[in-house]
Amino acid sequence: TCSCADGWQGPTCEVPACGGTACPALPGYSPGCNTRAYCEYTRTAPTEPWHADDVWIYLPPGTLEMGTPQGESEGLPVERPLHEVAIARGFFIGKFEITVRLHEACETAGACAAPAVDVDHTASWGLSRSANGRALHPQNGLAWNEAEAVCAFLGGRKPTSAEWEYAAKGPGTHRVFPWGDGPYPECGVQ
User: Fold this and answer.
1) Dist CA 87 CA 96 (whole Å)
2) What is d(CA 31, CA 58) in angstroms, rounded to the nearest whole number?
3) CA atoms of 139 and 128, how far apart (whole Å)
4) What is the pLDDT of residues 144-165, one digit of tens each?
5) What is the reported pTM?
């Protein structure tokens, strides 16, 4: 009998399926089905508080309509025309943004540099750090390459534009926002 506590690595363990997709193995993580019927992975043996922020979602292959339709006022000209993009291979994507405590763990491990204060984005709020009570906030002040370092620390990489849009909006037809064509984002919209 196999308890599958090792993350479905044993020969007699049954691979779970979510929404008709078999959950591939991710060493060190245990899969389960989330509320949207996607395979969701948490650490098998969490030992640090930041491990709770290290959650992955598996997105199976599929297609999406990417970009903005001609004539729409939304989006930039570079996003036109609307076109279909095939995601040929499934991929894992982090469920959460990079949290402060996760980034600080990366710094402690020597894999990441401390974020710099970005005058345009952090001047009014300051740099989010555990010391100022923002351990669970997204880490601000990161440049592109700094975000790549965190992804590498976790054993991953940054998603492509198509992968990110596929993850945000899901497969199928074009939507203006991840939640649909409205309401327009503003305070109070969840």
Assistant:
1) 21
2) 9
3) 6
4) 889 999 999 999 999 999 999 8
5) 0.80
